[in-house]
Specification:
The chain has helices at residues 4-20, 79-92, 125-140, 209-222, 240-253, 256-261, 321-327, 359-363, 414-420; strands at 25-41, 44-62, 65-71, 145-164, 169-185, 192-200, 232-238, 281-283, 306-310, 313-314, 335-336, 344-345, 350-352, 368-376, 386-397, 400-413, 422-423, 433-434, 438-447. It is an alpha+beta fold. The protein has three domains: 4-220, PmbA/TldD superfamily (PmbA/TldD fold); 222-245 and 354-447, no CATH class; 266-348, no CATH class. The strands form four sheets. A six-stranded antiparallel β-sheet has the order 3-2-1-4-5-6. A hairpin with a 6-residue loop joins strand 5 and strand 6. Helix 1 packs across helix 2 and helix 3 (125-140) packs parallel to helix 4. The longest helix is centred in the first third of the chain and has 17 residues, at 4-20. The chain starts with a helix and ends with a strand. InterPro entries: Metalloprtase-TldD/E_C, Metalloprtase-TldD/E_cen_dom, Metalloprtase-TldD/E_N, PmbA, TldD/PmbA_N, TldD/PmbA_sf. Belongs to the peptidase U62 family. This is Modulator protein.
């Protein structure tokens, strides 16, 4: 795999080819990755995969017209042809008054702090197989498990470089490790499935396989024999596994493109109170070893931590340069993109900061509640905020889990849910989007 400097030079060479082809402006991305993985089921190796990918993406402009092309070749000899093809496409494209690169005055040097995203340790297939086997064995050893969907382990490294005709050229190297297990409990006609998984930048931070397998089994066994409940109004407690989805609905509604298109239920919410006092939603791209950490965004703008919700108040949209121009604001450093695509805004490491009460206190906050551990389907209207999703979890009475429940639907409106939700104190930073246990005092529940 190339060095960071070599990858940045390749991206810069492609930008230079675009300029020679006649482009008024251009940016280019280079993506190089390799990964290995193995899965086992019932003690036997089920699948082994190894992949290497190389991708080059070029976005160029002819005034306010633009085109994007991609290639799998890293050979600079092919760059002039790629640039000429893109320029010919751009000349046929309609004009877009908001198109263009990020303002060069806003660009940083891309260096930023050391985020420690690259782990030189790369387990071989034998080590991956051993981890997957250990995870599955640990899961199958738990009483009540009757079958296995398997366990898998994987590792990989990637290198992404970005260069612009305004002088930015940087690269970022990162690594990832992952482990998962899924098993079955119960008998035919009443089977339940669940899983556990963990991902990390460094192998040393990955959960032990015994822990992953045991957690998958315990979650599955606990779901056996779900109880039918009455439809009605319940307090809903979102387990951290699913509470993070609420943040996904929030960020989708505050992206600049959604606001510019007027397709968001939070269209007029900037600067207003959406959550209770004390609630904070933070985006932190500079978290050391974070799964979504980055020093610069997909347009070369420097990244910085930002409280999107501060003391319950919405403080900012998430805007790339194009949507920022539409809205008449500055871009926020949240542009993301695939190598062969155009920028679009989105969060980095997003988290709902913890509240004062423990998970146990939230469980006991209402005489009757449902602890939701799984959500099914989409069921969210982005324009109105109406929320209706299939769910499974556990019935809670007076703070005690009394029975599993399944095949229910929970419904409400995201504005009401945001306004009344209470975060627990049990936040753990394990994913790209993290939340503690969350209590919503009242939602409608329909039982199948």
């Amino acid at each position: 795999m190339q060095s960071e400097a070599e990858a940045a030079d390749l991206a810069a060479a492609l930008v230079e080819a675009a300029t020679r082809a006649g482009a008024s402006a251009a940016d280019a991305m280079i993506g190089i990755s390799r990964s290995s993985g193995i899965s086992v089921r019932l003690g036997e190796v089920e699948d082994i995969d190894h992949s290497e990918s190389f991708e080059v993406g070029l976005r160029l402009f002819d005034g306010q017209r633009s085109a994007t092309v991609s290639s799998a070749s890293l050979d600079p000899a092919h760059f002039p042809e790629l640039a000429e093809r893109a320029f010919a496409m751009a000349r046929q494209a309609p004009e877009d008054p908001y198109a263009g690169l990020a303002d060069p005055a806003l660009l940083g040097d891309g260096a930023g702090p050391d985020l420690d995203l690259f782990d030189p340790v790369s387990p071989d297939l034998a080590a991956l197989e051993a981890s997957a086997r250990t995870a599955e064995d640990a899961a199958r050893d738990v009483a009540g498990v009757t079958n296995s969907n398997g366990a898998s382990a994987g590792t990989g490294q990637s290198l992404v470089a970005l260069a612009t005709s305004t002088g930015f050229a940087r690269a970022l190297r990162s690594s990832h490790h992952n482990l998962s297990a899924s098993v079955v409990a119960g008998e035919a006609g009443a089977l339940q499935r669940d899983y556990a998984a963990h991902s990390s930048r460094h192998l040393a931070d990955l959960d032990p396989p015994e822990k992953v397998g045991r957690l998958a089994a315990e979650r599955t066994v606990a779901r056996v024999g779900p109880k039918r409940i009455e439809s009605g109004t319940y307090a809903i407690i979102f387990d951290p596994r699913v509470a993070s989805s609420l943040l996904g609905h929030l960020t989708a509604a505050i992206t600049g493109s959604a606001i510019a298109r007027k397709t968001s239920f939070l269209l007029d919410a900037l600067g207003t109170r959406l959550f209770a006092e004390g609630v904070t939603v933070r985006d932190d791209p500079l978290r050391v070893r974070g799964l979504r950490s980055r020093a610069f965004d997909g347009e070369g703008l420097p990244c910085r931590p930002l409280d999107l919700i501060a003391d319950g108040i919405l403080t900012s949209w998430l805007a790339d340069s194009a949507s920022a121009r539409q809205l008449g604001i500055a871009p926020t450093g949240h542009a993301g993109r695939a190598v062969g695509g155009s920028p679009g805004a989105g969060p980095s490491n997003l988290m709902l900061l913890p509240g004062a009460r423990s998970r146990e206190e939230l469980l006991a906050a209402a005489p009757r509640a449902i602890l939701v551990t799984e959500l099914i389907g989409q069921g969210v209207n982005a324009v109105t905020g109406d929320y209706s999703r299939g769910a499974a979890g556990f019935l809670v009475e007076n703070g005690e889990i009394v029975a599993p429940v399944a095949e229910i639907t929970i419904a409400g409106n995201l504005k009401d849910m945001f306004r009344t939700l209470e975060p627990g104190s049990d936040l753990e930073l394990r994913r790209g989007i993290d939340a503690p246990t969350v209590l919503i005092p009242e939602m409608t529940v329909a039982s199948a």
